[in-house]
Amino acid sequence: MSVQTAVINSTADHEETVQRYAKHLGKDKIRRQLFDAVYGYSKTPRSLKQIMKDAGIAPKCQQQAQNQIDHLAKHKLIAWQDNNGSVKDGARKLYFKEPNVRALRNEIKKYADRPDLAKKLATKRGPQVTIIQSVRSVTKTTLRKRRHLNVLYLTADPIKSHALRYSSEDGRLALFSSL
Question: Could you give the CA distance from residue 79 to residue 85 in angstroms, rounded to a whole number?
């Protein structure tokens, strides 16, 4: 737990991940208190009783707290491990911070508080599309009035075995620049 881990999302679906976590966190009061207690200052895994005490949840609500902490663990908002005698209160599981969620917890809480913002969030599966009402048309006469036509020409050669043939490309560049 004392080692910091890098948060890397190789699938590039950061927004969808935050949106999903926020949906599962929701606005349930006990779930929020447990989430905040797990992501508090403690670095060691703790039992449900310890987390409830830190969250200020009454012992009579233990079954509700157990249901909510199981929900958080099921949806990977917190992590858990078996208690191998490190906590002596008879708990079977210990709960601790999930490294990926720890880095995103402020965003998750923001979108959990405001589901309308989460719906407006542009994602890979739900991109936000803006429709442009007016498009300026370009004709040959407007192009002739311009003195210069700027053409950006970029090349890349990431693999040396498939080298680009610059000599054959120069003819096309000359064609573009003469317009």
Answer: 18
Residue 99 and residue 29 share a domain: yes
Residue 80 sits in a domain of what CATH number?
A: 1.10.10.10
Per-residue pLDDT of the chain (179 residues; tens, 9 = 90+): 455 555 566 666 888 888 899 999 999 999 999 999 999 888 889 999 999 999 999 999 999 999 999 999 999 999 999 998 888 888 899 999 998 888 888 999 999 999 998 888 888 887 777 777 777 777 888 777 777 767 777 766 666 666 656 555 554 544 444 44
- To the question of pTM greater than 0.90 for the whole model, the response is no
Query: Nearest-CA neighbor of 96 among 52, 156, 35?
Result: 35
Residue 161 within a domain: yes
Interatomic CA distance for residues 92 and 141, integer angstroms: 79
Q: Give burial (CB, 10 Å; 0-12/13-18/19+) of 38.
A: buried
Within a domain: 136: no
What the block records as the tokens of 104 is 């995103």
**What are the tokens at 122?**
């542009």
My answer on whether 81 and 167 are in the same domain is: no
